[in-house]
Amino acid sequence: MITLHKCLIANRGEIAVRIIRACRELGIASAAVYSDADSHALHTRLADEAHHIGESSPAASYLNTHALIVTALHAGCDCLHPGYGFLSENADFVQQVLDSGLTWIGPSPSTIRAMGVKTEARALMQSAGVPVVPGFQSDTASEDDLIAAAHEIGYPLMVKAAGGGGGKGIRVVRSANSVADAITSARREALNAFGDPRLFLERYVEAGHHIEAQIVGDTHGNIVHLFERECSVQRRHQKIIEESPSPLLTAETRYAVGQAAVAAARAVDYVSAGTVEFIADRSGQFYFLEMNTRLQVEHPVTEMITGLDLVRLQFMIAARQPLPFAQTDLRQHGHAIECRLYAEDPASGFLPATGTILKFAPPFMPGVRIDAGVESGSVISHHYDPMIAKVIAHASTRADAIARLKNALRELVLLGPETNRAFLLALLDHPDFAAGRIHTAYIDAHLSELLPAAPDLPDAALIALALEQAAAPFGRAVDSDQGASMADPWSTHDGFRLRQRAQEPQ
């Protein structure tokens, strides 16, 4: 039985909705927070209660540690779930939450600190016997020291921010001529993004595969892995498509990755859900990259192939309950794949798109799950990440899971800002993806093949129809010039076909 009663959800969007639904199943009351820009957001309506937290900018709202804790205490909460992003890996905030008497749904501050600085994490993993990418690290290294070390490691190599993540502060260097400029620009970006100018070097694994292992640990010393996710489909170090099982791992390598992930978790006494990330080369040799001390965006992939609810497990662990299974009880069932649907324009360099979602209607299909934080009428703001939804498909085979994902993307009704849907479909349709011949640099190298030839814009008639409906609630009659009523355009049977000749109703 869960002993937690009320949770403040210190996040927004689809992850806030996901946590709210888990709370509802567990009988835990949910308290949402929102900024000015999110005053009508879906998560505020689904939660048991919602509290205004500040102005629209993240710094004034979702990153306002004092306001979050005060709100949690004022609302009578006994726990706080950070979701991912924002403050989820801020050890100082975790300590403040614990000092206020609240239960933190996540790992300890010491674990987060140990994994938060990449150079320290590398050293810790080496001592735990976890393989790491050959490289160089020194907190006192000068630019000359880094250049000398780069020549010794050889090219290509990566210059990486010691205290960062999310693809920031990273440069790939392919020759001695560009290493000095890469160090200067990476240091500048690291300082701006993380307030930490320290850098380290790693050998660059050419055409590598990004493999990550989901781990969970409880307060009783039990730690298990929930298998791997293949995350090699990336653009500028940002994941786009994730799947499990990885089509690239042999049974032996899969076992070794799981064992290394558990060893990494034990090295920091890991409690709650987390992810250990690896890079694998063509031979199958893999190396530790980093540990994410939080829930991942792609956690539904693991849920689909294991049948487990990771958010539910997080609450159980925070309530000091032991894991209800051992490693030998766990199996991968079928294949799951997820893509991230963004409000962005791939043809314009993937610039974020903003605006009102005039219509959002996810399909109901066997084996398909859609995690979204939007609905018809939601506004995509420039203040936050432009992800609209995660579309996840599960089937008995990889080919069937991919087919289901493509069908779901095609049938999802989404009218409003420009999205990356056509780009995702082109990627899923590509023969290299079908064959599993994808690596972390694939998209950047083949981008022109994947971009749509022209923007995927709706017909003018459909835009006009949507605008007319936006003037009145969907489903409410709108009088036409002839006096007839027009209902929700998605429910009518007048033979309209997008980009096709209308058919007479039968």
CATH fold naming of the domain at 207-333: D-amino Acid Aminotransferase, Chain A, domain 1
Alpha-beta content class: alpha+beta
Radius of gyration: 24 Å
Classified by CATH, the class of the domain at 207-333 is Alpha Beta
Overall CATH architecture of the domain at 207-333: 2-Layer Sandwich
Number of helices: 17
Number of strand elements: 25
Calculate the terminal CA-CA distance, rounded to whole Å.
Answer: 55 Å
Overall pLDDT level: 90
Range of helix content: 25-40%
- The low-confidence parts are 472-487, 492-506
The strand order across the widest sheet is 14-13-10-11-12-15-22-20
Quaternary state reads single chain
Q: Strand count, sense and closure of the main sheet? A: 8 strands, antiparallel
Overall morphology: globular
Strand content: 15-25%
In the CATH hierarchy, what is the superfamily of the domain at 207-333?
A: ATP-grasp fold, B domain
Describe the structure.
- The protein is of the alpha+beta class and 506 residues long.
- Among the domains are: 6-105, Rossmann fold (3-Layer(aba) Sandwich); 134-203, Dna Ligase, domain 1, CATH 3.30.1490.20; 207-333, 2-Layer Sandwich (D-amino Acid Aminotransferase, Chain A, domain 1).
- The protein has 17 helices and 25 strands.
- It has an eight-stranded antiparallel beta sheet, with helices on both faces. It has a five-stranded parallel beta sheet with strand order 3-2-1-4-5.
- Strand 2 (29-35), helix 2 and strand 3 (49-54) form a beta-alpha-beta unit.
- It is globular and about 60 Å long.
- The termini are far apart.
